[in-house]
TrEMBL record:
Site label Could be important to modulate the pK values of the two catalytic cysteine residues, positions: H158, E207
Zinc listed as a keyword: no
Organism: Celeribacter neptunius
Superkingdom of source: Bacteria
Protein name: Diaminopimelate epimerase
Entries under SUPFAM superfamilies matching the protein: Diaminopimelate epimerase-like
Record flagged with keyword Isomerase: yes
Compartments in which it is found: Cytoplasm
Sequence positions that bind substrate: N20, Q53, N71, G81, N82, N156, N189, E207, R208, G217, S218
Protein function: Catalyzes the stereoinversion of LL-2,6-diaminopimelate (L,L-DAP) to meso-diaminopimelate (meso-DAP), a precursor of L-lysine and an essential component of the bacterial peptidoglycan.
Pfam families for this protein: DAP_epimerase
Gene for this chain: dapF
Assigned keywords, A-Z: Amino-acid biosynthesis, Cytoplasm, Isomerase, Lysine biosynthesis
Amino acid sequence: MQQQTPPPNLPFLKMHGLGNDFVIIDSRGRDAVVTPDLAKAIGDRHCGVGFDQLAEIRSSEAADIDLDFWNSDGSRAGACGNATRCVGRLMLDELGRDEVTIRTERGILIARDMGDEVSVNMGHPQLMWDEVPLSHPVDTEFLPLEGEPVAVGMGNPHAVFFVEDIKAVDVPGWGRKVEFDPLFPQRTNVEFAEIRSRDEIRMRVWERGTGITLACGSGACATAVAASLRGLTDKKVRMEVDGGWLTLEWRDDGVWMTGPTQLVFKAEFDTSFLERV
Ligand SMILES: N[C@@H](CCC[C@H](N)C(=O)O)C(=O)O
């Protein structure tokens, strides 16, 4: 990918989906400007803006836009469901359509206007060990780790643990340990899920490269898939995360996720901040 120095007073937007918060930079019509160092500097909640993920919009030949994701530690993420819904909302409004296409590392995703909410088809889950990816062949439905999580790829890796009482789970302690387990060569996102009924799940997440977040869209998709694979729920569920509610449906054409989005503010970076990175 071609990269250029950010222009002076680079504009950006702050959005969130259920408290999963994002800085969005629109680089359409120029080369990408985000580097690992810039993502880290902007992601600093004290000296930068702070975000769970940074999304950079770029011109696309294959879809309405291309979209790249960065975690707050400066690492890249192949998928980010909630940022895709947020940017989907921007594009739906800008183009005045009820459906837009967004190309991510995951492939071309569809975002659909649902009135107050946005739905995204996050694609088919990746259920083979090398697709997740894992470091060696194992049964992805019962990983050989304490708690036997399910491994699901959604364009990024997830390990989903089913627990009796989510309030009793040490999410940062357990999450960090699993994120760095050698079974996951690219590290992993970690979800803890309590099944409330065949159509309702409570989920908390530890995100790779970021830590605890109030919601994780790809993690919600992975959790819905894992619960259905284990026969614990139907294919359509409501999921309560720390920041609110999502609806997930595993259909023949992929996993659809629906929920709210919010634009918080539009601003620009001071040039002196950009120059110090
Ligand atoms: N918040 C996201 C997931 C972000 C990416 C993740 N931390 C990773 O490194 O894979 C979502 O809404 O999906």
